[in-house]
Amino acid sequence: MAETRPELIFIAGARPNFMKVAPILRLLAAPEAPLRFRLVHTGQHYDAGLSGVFFSQLAIPEPDAHLNVGSASHAVQTARVMCAFEEYLLKLPKQPRGVVVVGDVNSTVACALVAVKLEIPVAHVEAGLRSFDRQMPEEINRVVTDAVSDVLLVSEADGMENLRREGVASSRIRFVGNVMIDSLIPELERAKALVMPTRLGMRSHYALVTLHRPSNVDTVERLTEIVELLMRLAPRMTIAFPVHPRTRERMERFGLMGRLAETPEIRVMEPLGYRENLGMMASALVVLTDSGGIQEETSFLGVPCLTIRPNTERPITINQGTNTLIDGALSKVDDLIGDILSGTYKRGGPIPGWDGHAADRIVSELTHSWA
Length: 371
Description:
371 residues, Rossmann fold, 13 strands
């Protein structure tokens, strides 16, 4: 019998995307699923530490296509994705019923633009998030992707308000909750069982640090300020610092790696896999980061998070979660660490829709829209 179920194409390009597509694809892989899917990996993140290990640990199926775009400037990378994805779509024997993009990376906006110009409907998972900072490339990606998408799948109430304020019709907006939590919940016990803090020789009080944004790592002044902050914190706790490739290159260029190497309480290491990072995060005294996704994960876990950024597209992690923004001078961190050590730092609470069932709601909405 000929296959009659509509087919969707899912796009995954970078580390944050993989955690978001994994639980959705698991549901659609079931024989009784109402929709079929193809997975396209654009190759925006392509090395083992930022890509391969996530596919393995999250049991993401082998992609139907690798576009292999690699690293480049924003314009070049976006253009490469657009050219390669358009070529891929035009070679298909039959156009898909829809294209599903997630998050806010260059692959997201590039594939959304290609699809809509070929008159293929687009759904955006994690729509409506806004930092209101147009200097962030991700903010441009969010706004443009939402503007051209047909189905806007929103993770939190702020996203719905933002889209309505921008004039998006309510019929296009669906609240589904946070699908990243769907990946976190089933992996949490396996992550803890790795006993990563013990394996890495961390003390009971330790900080996990992740940094990669240009605003923090691209100038010697700012990156030096961050290194000096870590050296100030080291006497109070051990520090695990999995270094993103971009950050490592800048630190080596600016001559800062040696300063960290001279501080035994700071453990500099390669990027961690999803499960290893989750295990470290779950047991941390505090997480210092500039990542959007980690703000969400720490809020769900109840772990204090200090985000070294002037703004966030996830204000719910501040209002209802455990996140605090660190804007400008980093001296504020020293006082907040004191609050965390004394137990007076704020405690988050449950966030609506962050319950491990967002993928079910996403599949339901995609089925309702396109099947």
